[in-house]
Design the sequence.
């Protein structure tokens, strides 16, 4: 098997299993402990006191267990049929998972968020010892005994012997440090036994069946709202799911698929029928199973995504989830929608904002025309419907500053007949007011919110200008803020026949009542990610 | 024109001088041996600028290390994911040697360091090793395995000895007694015993160079053959004092091991302003050293000056010089070898290797036939 084939089969296997598990997902008819014994027991021996060697001393997220099982298939030829693989992931994530507090800081890796700059402040060497090949989160989302972390180092170097030759590997006694200092540090930072996990094991898995009200927002797609229905199916913690999402531009999407809850809080769904193809939802539900949040993304282009929040629709439950748009310029009138559940009664938008007209009032959406007084104080107001508070409406005088988010984005060349697609980058122009000190860029700046913008690119520095990066690296949609990188491969038109990498400044310009206000971000256009497992 | 003619004559004189040692033998020509992905082995006649031999390496490739025999036309090359070594007769393309580095449940991989004895009888292969147990891996020390080059197609090591981890380059001393190996530091290893008799500190140079930070020294390309000097480049921060607070320079330098007398020099060259992957001295003037990556740079090690630099068509990892000192060759990386005038760095030719595969990180080797 060639390396290329290995990577491809990993991707195929991971994706197939990552379908959590598609509509035709069979129920876990077989006893997962029996599957574990049958598939893994030939190499992993039963230990005194029960449990299979190695496996029994680790805890992982669903994606972490999935990667392990897929790797066992690719590297050791272990054949685990898809339905058994799903059963094993579910069983192991439930019985040897991580508590919510243990994943909290590193959810960005599970949610496949692009453009994250990691903060790994627990150990200064860890980013170099481990985090130079994969995200730091990948290790931090596992729990092992110290001895098990040590064995993990042996596996790493045995499988990837160049580790100690690479940059930040050859400048130190990597193997010696990794098996001593690093393994001991990890055993303390991320130990197998924790109070958080013992406590969480007593928690009872919630039933998510029912109707849910959700809102969301993402760059390029803007804000959306809708409802979702979950119906329990035969499998443990599995659901048939359908949802209707309405976007700010009036378009509507209906998506249908399946969902599963791991470890009592790890929510995963895969839904079909969307314009951009299948959609994945990766998030959490709260302890009681009444609130949910996370990231929704395109299955085949997960850099395109949004943050969502959801609340269970139940009689006697009222909540405001979002206000759209979340801002109103002082001295202006506008239509404001309030999204939530169980909404009824008078609408209050706070000091200095008058509700001129109630356009419509449904339990899930209340739409009003509101006016902000010319001298209304700048700042956010809590929105209230019939005494139910939530969300915020921010009144502003002027847009004093625009900040491009993310301030540092990454796109990747791809396509051109190669096996790896291009990875786009999406940007938003977020408006700010200067705040009380009248000076933009200081601590008291007021975040107004994301606004429509005109988008452009320029070279980030002299080198980028000399190499003509704006011409070669890709194109920016002038309205949506979506950057599409250029094709992969050598480009004979460029100096040194270099590829279409680039270092660009992204400029977003907001029209604030005739005044153009611009902000800038940086965009690195880099090479393909050849190995793209569920946790990077 | 006069200068050009003059240098040609001087070069000819030098070649004649060298040739005097082998009276009656026709002047040997320079050949480059290289390989491209997935598993093509080429012999290139540098004067003719053409590929004269093309063989398939058995196995899926792609090679990271290569050792041409000094006494025959056999080239030893790693294959099958660096896990096996194949000896290919470049005249017949027949495989005459094959060794699987792994044994039983111990998986071994060769990471770049492989060389052959001066008499052509022994092959030295550095190995990273891991014991594959049912539910775990156990990392073993690195070692050098010694093979008889005539051991045939099922070769096993005749002896082995442990070496420090991280060795990436290896060459034999001219007297045939030692292997010089580059890794974290440079080691002079007695072949008969496997004992390290001298260590030239590089990564661990803090005692000798207290005002220097840790260097980055990746030496993958054994380009010693034209001068018998193995050049290990380093990059390092230099500080104002031993306190290492104020960085005053970031330098490129070399550890140069003279294989003829087993002596070495370690000295800075200049401030580092471009990346360099490998360096080679000019055999007709060993004050001149060439460094390559995306630029080809020509330095003078005596004056510590950059004499000339050009941008290359693309990045190259390996650099070496013709026996007469007149041409510089750049290779590895893509599917071509560049030929440059050693004096002016003017581009003279690009030799395209058939098939379109990349040479990757494999360092090309030079032989005279």
Sequence:
């Amino acid at each position: 098997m060639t390396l290329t084939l290995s990577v491809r089969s990993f991707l195929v296997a991971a994706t197939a299993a990552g379908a959590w598990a598609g509509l035709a997902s069979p129920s876990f008819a077989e006893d997962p402990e029996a599957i574990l014994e049958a598939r893994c027991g030939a190499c992993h021996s039963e230990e005194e006191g029960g449990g299979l060697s190695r496996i029994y001393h680790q805890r992982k997220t669903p994606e972490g267990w999935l990667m392990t099982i897929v790797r066992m298939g690719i590297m050791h030829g272990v054949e685990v049929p898809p339905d058994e693989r799903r059963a094993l992931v579910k069983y192991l994530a439930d019985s040897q998972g991580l508590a919510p507090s243990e994943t909290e800081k590193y959810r960005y890796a599970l949610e496949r968020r692009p453009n994250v700059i990691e903060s790994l402040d627990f150990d200064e060497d860890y980013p170099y010892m481990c985090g130079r090949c994969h995200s730091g989160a990948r290790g931090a989302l596992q729990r092992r005994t110290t001895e098990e972390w040590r064995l993990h180092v042996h596996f790493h170097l045995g499988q990837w012997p160049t580790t100690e030759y690479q940059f930040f590997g050859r400048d130190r006694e990597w193997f010696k440090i990794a098996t001593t200092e690093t393994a001991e540090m990890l055993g303390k930072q991320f130990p197998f036994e924790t109070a958080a996990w013992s406590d969480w094991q007593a928690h009872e898995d919630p039933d998510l069946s029912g109707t849910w009200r959700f809102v969301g927002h993402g760059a390029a797609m803007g804000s959306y709202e809708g409802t979702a229905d979950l119906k329990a199916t035969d499998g443990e913690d599995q659901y048939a799911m359908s949802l209707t999402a309405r976007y700010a531009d009036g378009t509507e999407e209906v998506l249908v698929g399946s969902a599963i809850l791991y470890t009592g809080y790890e929510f995963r769904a895969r839904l079909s029928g969307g314009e951009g193809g299948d959609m994945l939802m990766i998030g959490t539900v709260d302890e009681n199973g009444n609130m949910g949040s996370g990231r929704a993304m395109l299955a085949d282009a997960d850099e395109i995504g949004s943050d969502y929040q959801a609340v269970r629709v139940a009689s006697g439950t009222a909540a405001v989830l979002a206000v759209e748009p979340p801002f109103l310029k002082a001295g202006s009138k506008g239509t404001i929608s309030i999204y939530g559940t169980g909404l009824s009664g008078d609408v209050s938008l706070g000091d200095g904002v008058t509700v001129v007209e109630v356009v419509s009032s449904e339990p899930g959406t209340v739409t009003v025309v509101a006016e902000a007084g010319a001298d209304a104080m700048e700042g956010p107001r809590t929105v209230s419907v019939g005494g139910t508070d939530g969300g915020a409406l921010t009144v502003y005088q002027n847009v004093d500053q625009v900040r491009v988010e993310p301030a540092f984005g990454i796109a990747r060349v791809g396509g051109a007949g190669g096996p790896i697609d291009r990875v786009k980058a999406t940007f938003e122009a977020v408006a700010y007011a200067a705040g009380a000190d009248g000076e933009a860029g200081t601590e008291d700046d007021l975040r107004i919110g994301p606004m429509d913008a005109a988008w452009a690119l320029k070279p980030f520095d002299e080198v980028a200008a000399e190499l003509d990066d704006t011409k070669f690296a890709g194109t920016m949609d002038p309205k949506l803020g979506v950057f599409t990188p250029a094709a992969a491969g050598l480009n004979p038109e460029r100096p040194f026949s270099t590829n279409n990498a680039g270092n660009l400044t992204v400029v977003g310009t907001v029209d604030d009542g005739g005044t153009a206000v611009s902000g800038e971000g940086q965009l690195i256009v880099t090479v393909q990610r050849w190995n793209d497992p569920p946790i990077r | 024109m006069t200068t050009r003619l003059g240098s040609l004559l001087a070069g000819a004189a030098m070649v004649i001088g060298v040739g005097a040692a082998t009276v009656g033998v026709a002047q040997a020509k320079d050949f480059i041996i290289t390989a491209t992905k997935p598993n093509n082995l080429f012999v290139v006649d540098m004067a003719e600028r053409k590929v004269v031999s093309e063989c398939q390496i058995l196995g899926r490739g792609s090679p990271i290390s290569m050792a041409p025999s000094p006494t025959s036309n056999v080239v030893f090359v790693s294959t099958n994911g660096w896990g096996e070594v194949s000896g290919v007769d470049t005249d017949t393309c027949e495989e005459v040697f094959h060794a699987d580095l792994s044994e039983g449940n111990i998986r071994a991989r060769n990471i770049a360091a492989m060389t052959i004895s001066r008499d052509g009888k022994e092959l030295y292969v550095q190995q990273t090793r891991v014991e594959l147990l049912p539910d775990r891996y156990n990392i073993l020390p690195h070692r050098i395995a010694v093979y008889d080059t005539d051991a045939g197609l099922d070769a096993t090591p005749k002896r082995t000895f442990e070496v420090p981890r991280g060795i990436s380059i290896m060459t034999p001393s001219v007297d045939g007694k030692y292997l010089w190996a580059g890794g974290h530091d440079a080691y002079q290893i007695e072949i008969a015993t496997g004992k390290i008799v001298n260590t030239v500190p590089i990564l661990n140079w803090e005692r000798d160079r207290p005002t220097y930070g840790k260097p980055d020294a990746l030496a993958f390309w054994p380009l010693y053959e034209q001068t018998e000097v193995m050049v290990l480049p380093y990059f390092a921060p230099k500080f104002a004092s031993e306190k290492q607070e104020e960085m005053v320079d970031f330098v490129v330098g070399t550890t140069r091991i003279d294989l003829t007398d087993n002596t070495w020099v370690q000295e800075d060259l200049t401030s580092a302003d471009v990346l360099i992957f490998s360096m080679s001295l000019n055999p007709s003037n060993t004050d001149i050293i060439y460094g390559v990556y995306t630029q080809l740079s020509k330095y003078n090690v005596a004056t510590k000056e950059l004499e000339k630099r050009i941008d290359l068509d693309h990045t190259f990892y390996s650099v070496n010089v013709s026996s007469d000192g007149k041409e510089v060759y750049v290779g590895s990386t893509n599917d071509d070898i560049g030929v440059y005038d050693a004096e002016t760095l003017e581009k003279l030719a690009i030799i395209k290797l058939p098939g379109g595969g990349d040479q990757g990180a494999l360092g090309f080797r030079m032989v005279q036939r």
